[in-house]
Design a protein that fits this description.
The complex is a heterodimer of chains A (about 280) and B (about 300). With about 280 residues, chain A is mainly alpha-helical. In chain A, about 75% of the residues lie in helices and about 0% in strands. Chain A is built from 13 helices and no strands. In chain A, helix 8 runs antiparallel to helix 9. With about 300 residues, chain B is mainly alpha-helical. The chains are: A mainly alpha (about 280), B mainly alpha (about 300). The interface between A and B is large, with 102 and 106 residues.
């Protein structure tokens, strides 16, 4: 019995050492980003490694924000993210309601096509989609980055919401229908309030995706005043190739909103991810 | 006339169904199905975005496979990245998930740490890793130096540029870990208890119970991982520009440069169609998995 206890202790020690080791490996890059962002230029990229800035130079953040139109880009990025969240929430839930609670000819076939498009290799869409937006005269506007969100918000979000709506009992809706409620009313006053957790997951994912998008803004926004943080940072980096401390300060500021959101809503973010992988 | 009123009732309901689904029907046609058809069409033409596309039959494909070595190189680079990063991500993700699953009340803390990089914006993360990979002053090579290892040139070396990008992709392993964890928690504990009574050790439990029970989740992660990794673009665009010696020119970077810098949209479409056809089997596999799930 005693040797078994000892074995268990050894196993626990190994387990926690390995996990701690990996945690350190995972945290070091992030630590490095923040540490570099506070260093004077002379302490950046030194041999041997200078782990902590001596003394921390908070001015870097002011210099970084002044070196490129940070607040403008921050606003543009937030604006696009908010529009994407609003558009996706509204249109994806409407479509999911139609797929789960309304009956119409071709519904199941269309839903299967929707599932099939969830994992379309998107390379094949880039050029024609660009040409469509170009013919519409939407290049260098926010429309290509916003309108798709209002057109269903993507197959995956529709799928996620539809799966949730299916679990809402039909009797609940039937009762309201008998009372003469319209479908839109049932959708907005019965189904949506019951679906807050999944709507929230969809919002957070859309927000993360929009905030992190690099390809879309790169392709469609040519006027620097319309850029988002991702594209703006890229041009900042090209102008100041060696000022790593300022670049890391700007990078930290770009990442900060997402880190805050992550720590506040961690549970729904990770469980949403787990849900997305439950295609067993 | 009860028959007629029922029919009109269904008609009305149908109409509402279409109305609610209308945003997606428009989106599906304009942004997915239409573009797929258009890509196939454009791939048989030469098109500069201004003058009307000119039909040239299979010429683009002929050039791709016989006259343009950079395409096969890009395809090879993309496969290298896809299989390298997915293999390592799934393997390491599974190991870490199993360890986490045994971590009891500390699981939450470790999971928080492992998942954190997933939410970080891609562009800042790439700048950060460019610093870490710096051959002389970067953290990674200074760390290797402690053990007397002369670290490679990483992003500046044709041999090590892809491994470097793969290594960076491992930082985003948290998504896979979380999916595995959910799968692990679905395995009935009685299975382990029964095997332990029969005297199985931890390693046997892993290979005889955990891996077989997780096979569908592993499979899912591999397939979604491969499709996701095939889109690799920003890493090369920002960190290496496709070099050195085209070693990180991935298919999507090639499409981007051809279509939007050189405006050879027909030729670029042919590349996208080839990539599409290569990946479609994976899409079909995922479609089957999800359809089954949707039907409960």
């Amino acid at each position: 019995m005693r040797s078994q206890k000892k074995m268990r202790l050894i196993r626990e020690i190994i387990l926690y050492s390995v996990l701690t080791l990996f945690s350190v490996i995972f945290l070091v890059p992030l630590f490095w980003m923040i540490s570099t962002s506070l260093k004077p230029e002379s302490q950046v990229m030194t041999v041997p490694v200078q782990w902590l800035p001596k003394p921390p130079q908070w001015r870097n953040y002011i210099d970084a924000v002044k070196a490129f139109p940070f607040f403008r880009y921050f606003w543009n990025t937030s604006f696009l993210a908010i529009l994407n969240v609003v558009g996706t929430l509204f249109s994806a839930s409407l479509v999911a309601y139609s797929f789960s609670k309304l009956r119409w000819k071709g519904r199941n076939q269309l839903f299967y096509i929707t599932i099939a498009t969830m994992f379309i290799p998107s390379q094949v869409l880039i050029i024609p989609t660009y040409l469509i937006f170009s013919k519409l005269g939407w290049i260098n506007t926010y429309l290509p980055l916003v309108v798709p969100a209002f057109c269903g918000g993507g197959a995956f979000n529709i799928f996620l919401l539809r799966q949730f709506f299916v679990s809402i009992p039909d009797e609940l809706l039937e009762a309201a229908r008998i009372d003469g409620a319209s479908e839109f009313r049932i959708y907005s006053q019965i189904v949506l309030p019951l679906s807050k957790p999944v709507l929230f997951t969809v919002s957070i994912f859309t927000l993360l995706f929009s905030w992190n998008d690099f390809f879309g803004p790169l392709l469609y926004l040519h006027d620097p005043s319309k850029w988002t943080l991702a594209v703006g940072l890229r041009s900042f980096q090209q102008q100041y190739t060696t000022t790593w401390n300022l670049l890391m300060a700007a990078s930290t500021l770009t990442a900060l909103p997402l880190i805050i959101i992550y720590f506040i809503f961690q549970k729904s973010i990770t469980s949403g991810f787990a849900l997305s992988g439950s295609g067993k | 006339m009860p028959g007629k009123s029922i029919r009109s009732f269904w008609k009305r309901k149908s109409a509402i169904g279409y109305l609610f689904a209308a945003p997606w029907i428009i989106g599906l046609v304009c942004f997915i199905l239409g573009p797929i058809v258009a890509s196939f069409f454009l791939s048989f033409t030469t098109y500069d975005g201004i003058n009307p596309p000119k039909w040239i039959g299979f010429m683009n494909y002929k050039i791709l496979f016989t006259l343009d070595p950079s395409f096969l190189k890009a395809l090879g680079n993309t496969f290298y990245y896809m299989f390298g990063s997915v293999f390592l991500k799934v393997l390491l993700g599974l190991i870490l998930a199993v360890l986490l699953n045994n971590a009891g009340k500390f699981m939450g803390i470790f999971r928080t740490i492992f998942f954190l990089p997933v939410v970080l914006p891609a562009v800042p993360v790439m700048f950060l890793w460019m610093m870490l990979f710096n051959p002389t002053n970067g953290l990674i090579n200074q760390f290797l130096g402690i053990f007397g290892i002369n670290g490679p040139l990483w992003l500046n070396s044709p041999t090590w540029s892809k491994p470097a990008i793969i290594l960076m992709s491992l930082w985003g392993i948290g998504g896979i870990i979380v999916i595995f964890l959910a799968g692990l928690q679905g395995i009935p504990t009685e299975l382990y208890e029964a095997a332990e009574l029969d005297g199985a050790n931890k390693i046997q439990l892993f290979w005889k119970i955990t891996v077989p029970m997780l096979r569908p989740v592993i499979f899912f992660n591999v397939v979604t991982g491969l499709i996701g990794a095939s889109q690799v673009f920003a890493e090369a665009y920002i960190m290496t520009g496709g070099g050195p010696l085209e070693s990180t020119t991935f298919v999507n970077l090639m499409i981007y440069k051809l279509a939007f810098k050189d405006v050879q949209m027909g030729y670029a479409s042919a590349i996208s169609v080839v990539m599409f056809l290569i990946l479609v089997p994976l899409t079909i596999v995922l479609f089957r998995i999800y359809r089954r799930q949707a039907e409960f």
